[in-house]
Amino acid sequence: MTEQFPGRLLDLLETAGHRPVFEHADRTVTAAELIGSVGRVTHGLRAHGIGPGDGVALLLGVSPEAFATIIAAHAVGARVVGVRPGLTARQRQHLLADTAFTVTDRTADTDAGTGTGTGMGMSTDTDTDTDRPGKVLALNDLLSAPHDGRRPLPQARPEDIARLIHTSGSTGVPKACAQTYAAMTEAWALRPEAWPPAVRALAARLDRFLVFGTLASQVMLEYGLLTLAAGGTLVTAGQPDLRDSIERHRATASVITVARLRKLTAGQRASPADLTTLRALMVSGSPLEPGRLREASDVLGPVVFHGYGQTETGMISMATPEDEPGSLGVPPVDLEIRDASGRPVPPGTDGELFVRTPGQSVGYWREPALTAEVFGDGWVRTRDLGRLDSEGRLWLTGRARDVIIVNANLYYAGPVERLLATHPSVAEAYVVGVPDDDTGEAVHAFVVPAEGHLPELRELRAWVTANLEEASAPTRLTLIDEAPLTPAGKPDKRRLSAGG
Fold first, then answer.
1. What confidence tens digit (pLDDT) does each residue in 308-330 have?
2. Domains plus CATH for the chain?
3. Degrees to nearest 5, angle at CA 301 with 295 and 305
4. CA angle, corner 254, sides to 280 and 396, nearest 5?
């Protein structure tokens, strides 16, 4: 029987020995040193009586010790909740509601209790004790616990909940996706023998992976584990500017949102930095328009990997720099495109995506009704719309719930946004429904102009009408410099609709 997560990672670190696996500030940490920190924190957690099924929240910066704490919490079999930056007080309290312990590296005066710093993109808000229900444990104290030097033995049972991964919360309070230890054990990151071609191509570029924000995030942890499995080193960002951090740390890879990719491309075009070490930027969080991808590739080279996945499922598919812009590559998981009645449709036909992945969640924590809507018969309903072409490549076309009702007819926002983004004067486009006295709702387009262009409503209406139905053409146009973002880095349409 395979030892539950993080057994395979601990095996990897034992084998790696004195190989550098982490660079933080002026320190280089070897695999042996990292596993020693895991052992001390594991012993400290067990001394507080923490074991399988206990809820543990992690309020940590970015450091080797923070990473060791994540692994130690899993070694004792806890139900781990990572607290990401940028949450409101209400959202943070919701995340911590079922946790008996909070591990933090912060003090009342600083976010750097163990020298972690806030890291790139880390919130500098000082959390109060009322934000941390249950017992608060200081990371420094856990690291000072005695340790016998032996490798920790994972205690979890396969069916135990390993972590609660929270959605972006863009519609209010984040939903908690419950992932079991069995799912974490079967996930792809630590299993080179199971890497699909796109992941194998990415792994070869992860020599020096730049990490920031919080290592407890789903994306950062999975790519961090992949980096270690590929023989690479995790490097912490020493400053908030991604371009400067890549240059300073000679990073070969990092994660990036679409908005930050645009800024990186613009900055590099205006004043080139030495990014010759850069080999991979993993775009996540929102769709990447083909025009943006081509622009980034022209300036940065063939470095963009576009991942598609959900909090509920983990990675579903990934496009490499060799894939056609707009495509998400060939999904390495079970995937069906279904019509409104739930029947699979043939290649080339749009429908809703249903998937099965090795590391998917079992449902939403303490929300059985919502779980029944999304999880069923081993499949996860993504509520994304798309199609598979004749070669099995995935193309997304919108969100099943992102609709505008014009004259009692539903029009999906995704196809309109993608069509607008192909217009020569448009760099990015977002559409929302607005009240209309004649049609009930109408399309309001928010557009980031392409460089040197000034889009006009008349030409954009004609562009949409020529390719889609007239009812889906925008009746209002607002030019914006950039879209507002949610804390998870996704375009925030609610703020667009509200005027900012």
1. 999 999 999 999 999 999 999 99
2. 7-186 (3.40.50.12780), 203-399 (3.40.50.12780), 403-497 (3.30.300.30)
3. 85
4. 70
